[in-house]
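Subject: sequence -> structure tokens, single chain

Hey, anyone have a minute? Need the predicted structure for the following. Not urgent.
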Amino acid sequence: MAILSVFLLLQLAFIWQSTAQTQNTCTKGETGIPGTPGHPGYNGVPGRDGRDGHPGADGKPGPKGDKGEMGIKGEPGLPGPPSVSVSSPSDAMEMKKTQHSAFTVRANFQGTPPVNSPIRFGYEVYNPDKHYNPYTGIFVCRVPGVYYFTYHILVSGKGVTSYLYHNNRVIMTTRDTYSSPDVDTACGGTIIHLLLGDTVWLQVNREEEDGVFNGSTFTGFLLYPD
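Reply:
Had a minute. Here:
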């Protein structure tokens, strides 16, 4: 029995020694074939919105635009008074007595009038001779002589500076500073000598001072002819 145990122990020792030698003599194996790439992953969660950027600087002015088309043709002017033959001084005096020119017109527009152009008083209170044209806002002298012009401007919302023109020349200026909430009045009047074809009109030249209100009036009449 003892001999058998010794024999088994020797045999086990021999097997262990053989295994150890075999392990010490092993060599590195060859590199394996690369594996197949995996499938693409799922899309990630969208990120948060970025912050607003700073406002950009103002761009440079663009090039000058093309010249606009010619405006429509204006309306024909009013016919002049018929000529009268004068044979004597008494006939001349009678002719002067029959000559007349007078008008009163009232503003009926909404808002304020355009600047740098005649104010068009569209409602004709009295204008039998049609020497004042409500479409242009201009009075045209058809009877030479001495005239009186007056105006009453209702001022509301902002101040007004009105200009009375005679042949493109300012002959009177009236200014009123608006005081809320009342409606102010800017008035003016003058006597002037007019020749045939002379023009007279009212105008405002600045948007800050164009507070002409609906109901303002403009009047002119002949005092005596030449």
